[in-house]
Design brief:
mainly alpha; 99 residues
Length: 99
Amino acid sequence: MSSADFTWSTCTFARTRPAVARETARHGDPGRAETLTRSIAHRGTQARALAALVELSEPSRDRRLAAQVVVLGGWDPVLPVLERIVPRSVAVVVDQMMS
């Protein structure tokens, strides 16, 4: 395998890992999905993948995952799902940031 093939294959796998994690959670194995997501090296990609898991998680897990998304990637990746798990949270965050 040439270095170009290795680089292409590595990039392709890195892009598919979040999708595989999302589908793993969707099919009922959220623990394995979270483990797979944590194996993503790039913090931004890992944050987006965790945000996707927040949407698919049970209430006992979704707030913890959302907090980890904020730590890894800031507010942007988690804002779309935050309102579902904590009603009025987006308004509170905006108020805090604007004052």
